[in-house]
Amino acid sequence: MYRTWMRYFTPSPVHHRLGLVCLGVGLQHGTLPAVGPRTLDHHVAVIIHAGSGWYADPDGTRHPVTAPALLWLTPGVPHHYGADPETGWDESFVDFTGPAATTYTELGYIEPRPDRPLVPLADTAAARAAIGRIARAARRGNPLLEVETSAAVHELLVALRRARADTDADGDPVLQALARDAFLPLSVAEHAARHGMSPAELRTAVRRGAGCSPKDYLLGIRLGRAKELLAATELPVAAVARRVGYDDPAYFSRLFTRRVGTAPVRFRTQQGRAVPGGWSTRIPDPDDPPVVSGTG
Q1: CA triplet 244, 247, 252: central angle to 5 degrees?
Q2: Cα Rg for the chain, rounded, in angstroms?
Q3: Residue ranges making up the domain that contains 114
Q4: CATH code, domain with 118
Q5: Which of 16, 38, 120, 294 has the fewest CB atoms lying closer than 10 Å?
Q6: In the beta sheet, which residues pair with residue 56?
Q7: Tell me, what CATH number does 248's domain have?
Q8: pTM for this one?
Q9: Which residue, among 251, 180, 249, 256, has the nearest Cα to 218 in the 3D structure?
Q10: Which pLDDT tens digit goes with each residue over 96-124?
Q11: Which parts of the sequence belong to the HTH araC/xylS-type domain (predicted)?
């Protein structure tokens, strides 16, 4: 005995340019019939919220699935899975496609491992909320259907990445430590040594946790902070450079210009937010931002 609800969509070519489009959504519960063997031309995230079941390798070997868990079904890869025939499971699924799926795969949000499609999750609450938004947007005649569901697919991928059982709820400790030390004038090798790691081990850890190299991870934090200081203070560019870890202001300016697309001074002019007195004389603290309260 089982219950099922599903909707399928056919987004237009212009909606595909959003990067990701939702092709379908479903909510199912009970002793569901097995799926496959079959092969699809798009991605499907199958989230198991409660219960247990199995998935089969291409060679037919079955492996247990215990909630909470995620089954990644990837394009062109045969898959075969099902709920326990006695107890069943509580499942939701989202079909999606689009050019941004390649980028999400490169960043590690989508795991294209045909031999191991199962990803254990810590919980499914955030994923369930994102899928709920897709289900609500799926009402007949909704003029915002494609855009609303596209946005929710992006949200779902983030929620699933955060919910992976191998990720600490507060983030990867190595990434936390790198973020804390990001403004120190240290090389990647020196950062690795501080954590008792080789540069190769640090690269692997950061790539797994953030989807990029340690250099790019640190650079993103440094440039983000530099933008805040340029926009909200009147500090000279050289002082901004020193505060984000660069002793050579000329090198900082070249790096900022190459990555941001505009020079630091030009960026400050474009923002036009520095106001003499008030907050502009203070260094903004990202961990303790000022509170703006409304009146009446």
Answers
A1: 65
A2: 23
A3: 2-163
A4: 2.60.120.280
A5: 294
A6: 62
A7: 1.10.10.60
A8: 0.74
A9: 180
A10: 999 999 999 988 888 877 677 899 998 99
A11: 172-270
